[in-house]
Design goal:
The protein is of the alpha/beta class. The chain has one domain: Class I glutamine amidotransferase (GATase) domain (Rossmann fold), CATH 3.40.50.880. The chain has six helices and 13 strands. Strand 12 and strand 13 form a beta hairpin.
């Protein structure tokens, strides 16, 4: 009995110190994406692809999925450095600002890329979500993506007219390594991808690369040319036969699994 108690104490202590495989920290960039708007009282507040934004423009639903899977959510309002990335397992950069969205946009610089590359090399999981070429700052974003063999093309693929949702449908085959339950997803007006090693396509539409994965050192990079899983399309206003909510669950589980490998 004494040996059993000692064993249990050791196991529980290890769990406390190291956490479970799902106890990951997911950090969302608030530096390169920093959009603000006025509320009814005239006060500026941050919105668009944030954890706190519960309107259709936010990531509150995706954040809740991560939390349900045991992850902790953080945001990073400063430029990424080795020091402030050290506590993150997954780091997401979404739709970097253009001057149209932010009068003083923060562009991705060489020092940022160096810090991110080193963090990924040590086992970090980087998520890059762009947008169509008219609504994202691609030149600097591509300097970061290019470090992992990924380029967001200057295009606007899968255009949708109004509420003709079928125009934005993609179909995922059984056995997909990331999307194990989602079969029909919605994504519109995105940047397609061009790849070179070590990047590889993980989802294509004909000859168009829609999503890619790049393994760098001990880490992983996932990229898609759209903010995609924000509240509006998860499944805020989609017909019931779309699986964006399942896709969000699948992708979250896969990202957490990649982070658990380091």
């Amino acid at each position: 009995m004494k040996k059993i108690l000692c064993y249990l104490i050791t196991v529980l202590s290890g769990c406390f110190i190291y956490g479970s495989l799902t106890a990951q920290t997911v950090t969302l960039d608030y530096f390169f994406n920093s959009e603000h708007k006025k509320d009814s009282a005239g006060n500026l507040h941050r919105f668009h692809y944030t954890w706190e934004d519960r309107d259709q423009t936010g990531y509150s639903i995706w954040g809740d999925i991560f939390k349900k899977k045991g992850a902790t959510l953080k945001s990073l309002e400063e430029a990424p450095t080795a020091q402030n990335l050290a506590g993150s397992d997954i780091y997401m950069i979404v739709d970097p600002d253009t001057e149209k969205e932010n009068p003083s946009p923060q562009y991705i610089r060489a020092s940022h890329i160096a810090a991110i590359k080193e963090w990924v090399k040590k086992g970090g999981v980087l998520v890059l979500l762009a947008n169509d070429s008219a609504n994202v700052e691609l030149p600097h974003f591509n300097t970061l993506a290019g470090a992992f063999g990924i380029t967001f093309n200057n295009d606007d693929y899968h255009k949708v007219t109004g509420n003709q949702f079928e125009m934005g449908a993609f179909y995922i085959q059984h056995g997909h390594p990331v999307f194990t339950t989602a079969r029909k997803i919605y994504m519109k007006e995105l940047s397609t991808l061009s790849l070179k090693p070590p990047a590889e396509p993980i989802f294509k539409d004909g000859d168009k690369v829609i999503m890619a994965v790049s393994h760098y050192g001990k880490g992983t990079v996932f990229a898609v040319g759209d903010p995609w899983i924000y509240n509006e399309y998860c499944n805020g206003r989609l017909p019931k036969n779309y699986d964006n909510d399942k896709a969000a669950e699948d992708l979250s589980a896969w990202l957490i699994k990649q982070a658990g490998k380091k």
